[in-house]
Specification:
The structure holds two protein chains of two kinds. Chain A is α/β, with parallel strands linked by helices. Helix content of chain A is about 35%, strand content about 20%. Chain B is of the alpha+beta class. The longest helix of chain B is centred in the C-terminal third of the chain and has 15 residues. Classes of the chains: A alpha/beta, B alpha+beta.
Chain lengths: ~575, ~170
Amino acid sequence: METQIVKQNQYLEQPNERISGSEAVVRCLLAEGVDVLYGYPGGAIMPVYDELYKYQDKIHHVLTRHEQGATHAAQGYARISGKVGVAIATSGPGATNLITGIADAQIDSTPMVCITGQVASHLLGTDAFQETDIIGISTPVTKWKCQVTKASEIPEVMAKAFYIAQSGRPGPVLVDITKDAQFEEFDFQYKKCKNIRSYIPIPNTEKSLVEAAANLINAAKKPMIIWGQGIILGGAEEEFKAVIEKAGIPSAWTIMGASALPTTHFLNIGMVGMHGNYAPNILTNQCDVLIAIGMRFDDRVTGDLNRYAKQAKIIHFEIDPAEVDKNVKTDLAVLGDAKESLKELLPLLKTNKHTKWHQKFKDLYAIEFEEVIQKDLNPTKEGLSMGEVLKEINKQTKGEAAIVSDVGQHQMIACRYAEFRNTRSNITSGGLGTMGFALPAAIGAKMAAPDREVVAIIGDGGYQMTIQELGTIFQSKVPVKIVVLNNEFLGMVRQWQQLFFDKRYASTEMTNPDFITIAKGYHIEATRVTKREELADAVSNMIASKDPYFLEVCVEKKNNVFPMVPYGASVSEVKLR
Amino acid sequence: MKKQLITVSIYTENFVGLLNRVTTIFTKRHVNIESITASKSEIENVHRYTIVVKESENLIEKIVKQLEKQIDVVGAFYHLEDQTIFQEIALYKIDIENVSESKFKEIISVNHAQIVEIEKKFVVVEKTGTKADTDALYNELKPLGLMQFVRSGRVAITKQSMNISEMLHNNKKI
């Protein structure tokens, strides 16, 4: 293979050594700085597990309770730290169970390397026990994948896997290793991959385009920014803040971009999209220049494309050329890494305030506050709201917590109301909308950032999709805080049924088990809150705990999330009720 | 937008499974592949796929960007009909037992086809040309007793240059 290579760190300097393929896998992981991986053993991956046993003082394997949990834990690890998350599984069902997490990492650009065992190479294609064509299955949802049938291929493939997973627009990579390749001995030497001739991770930023962007921005009377995860992935938070502060541009975020700028920053005008804030949705269709940075105009962000920001000149700062003009036709695309592009942009910008234009956002926020936010955060009805739970968590964690949310109503509430002070604090399944993501992702996040408070916010539906990971939390003693907002419904689907299917609540009502008993079965301290007056103390006890903690809050059953851009509507048709 | 025949040229590394990755990108957008060929290219160790689709240019532009993005794809391009020189090869197996020799020879000669094999009971004819050319011969041979027919995918050369060597050269510098 045509790769160029560079030497680094202690594991790379050793001379050739005769070792098995399975030991080589572990040595490659160590050379890439991996200190923890998540997985589940089985027949075809046993040789690697045997080596993990030998190397357990150097690399920590966390046994999840399902391979899907291993991928989400690896994702949580990657999302909070920026490092590559690693998951490992056996062939057949072990490998297919990884697919949901891989697809999630692909659509949310999360750096992850998955290692799967495969049947011995002479059995490939024979429908052997636990054989599945994981290479074929994973192809559409991986950034890259490779099947290894000879031990000697392992170092180069692993080096490429780590390079590809974390360079450019990150993504998941799968390495499938046959059992005979794991047993085979060869002369091991590891060289990091630095370049692949067919792959350009970061396209060059053209200076003239940055200048053209600056001119458009400087001439704008009503500019608006929508930023996405590209700011976080590019580590461009400081450059971004400097740009918006200098040019005085009201800036909104996609769900994946949340926490790149503190929630309370004066230019942070909230979230765009289906359940985003009122002002940025309405004013997307009034701004004169729309600057998209590191985002991909997902349909949940844009609503009806034919009525999306048609009046505006659109500038797209983007690392992935395939995203340019994919959904929204841009007037100017600046390719490249957000950090570098924004650094170049900053000196070209005129200082500005756009006070009158900014005031429009504030006025619309006031309307949203009156109609929606006030009722969510300070409800007067008897039943607890999801919003007031978030408000209490904000208050008691002082906005320092990383919030790991699952998928559904509680996710929208968590993203809308969580107060983020630090970047990489919003960990959620944005693009794929994977229910069951949060509990295992919180495990990975907490392990990658043990000094941070990690609070998982989960609905009663998603919680039960990966509830078995309580076993991982118990066994590995990961002090995550788990908050289940229980409305005894698949709330988001129920909301759509109410609004668009004449209240025919098909299969959305949940008869739930006693979550407290289940948590206690795993020896996890657990509390249930049913009344408003119990909430503050319960959250306080949870935050004070040094151990894993489970808090169930029984919330109003049929609350809806607003604002809402109905499916197929234009963003400016956002509804407050 | 109007659907038209478009030739997509994809230069790749020669790795197992890469064709699958390439075709899934078409499948994902519900695009049917009219024809496909894989061969070596003008550059050593670089493979080339030539894929013909009937689609709108707008959609193919997006697909080509997605192809280009794949790690082991060196470069991907698309060209419209007037920007390419292309040929297909067709083979026809004809039952000659009840065919008049003179009529058969006339058809072969008028169509600029060639006889590549003669056996007791059949003849194999080869014709290179556009789809219309090979279809025309098909229509003439069919009444004579066509035992088998097969046509290759399109092979195409583009009028404009595709800067693959440059791309490889530039990437290496990074």
